[in-house]
Amino acid sequence: MVKLANFFVSLSFAGYIKLIPSGTFASFLSIVILFPIVEYKIISLEIFVVIFFVIFLLSLFFINKFSSHNQSHDSKVIVIDEFIGVYLILIFYDQIKIINPYVTIALIFILFRFFDILKIFPANIVDRKLKSAFGVILDDLIAGIYTIIILYIVNAYY
């Protein structure tokens, strides 16, 4: 079970990549995996949302397993939270699309990483105070929400 948890939370061991920060690599990989699904409407939005919730719940379970086995709270190896943050943003892809898909994806990547790294309120509080699997994920969901809001505003005025 620990090996499966490690595989899952590290996003197929992407969390072990050392060439660039693991969160940056995982965010990029998440876009590479998820963007074609939403751009080409490979599955319906409803199914996409259901899969999001399944991955979210599995993440809570596997982060707890991984963290208790490694006796760490938010290991750098855990990057499934970046995947979930990017996934949340892409649920709203049709509402936030700007100019063309490539500009939109570049902005999603840049804004998400910006908010994920800076941890603007309330993400900073969540990151410091919530020492659980939910806390690991929640700060990335907040970064995703901020990204959605910014892109929605830009899209409204473009």
What does this structure look like?
The chain is an all-alpha fold and 158 residues long. Helix content is 75%, strand content 0%. The chain contains eight helices and no strands. Helix 6 crosses helix 8 (133-157).
Q: Could you tell me how far the N terminus lies from the C terminus, measured between alpha carbons in angstroms?
A: 49 Å
Q: Secondary-structure element sequence? A: HHHHHHHH
Share of helical residues: over 70%
Could you name the ranges where pLDDT drops below 50 across 5 or more consecutive residues? none
Molecular shape: globular
Number of continuous helical runs? 8
Structural class: mainly alpha
What average pLDDT do the residues reach?
93
Query: How many structurally independent domains?
Result: 1
The total count of strands amounts to 0
Content of β-strand:
under 5%
From the alpha carbons, calculate the radius of gyration and give it in angstroms. Answer: 15 Å
Sheet having the most strands: none
What does the secondary structure layout of this molecule look like, with pairings?
Blueprint: H1 2-9, H2 22-39, H3 45-70, H4 80-91, H5 93-96, H6 101-118, H7 123-129, H8 133-157
Helix pairs in contact: 1-3, 2-4, 2-6, 3-4, 3-8, 4-6, 4-8, 6-8, 7-8
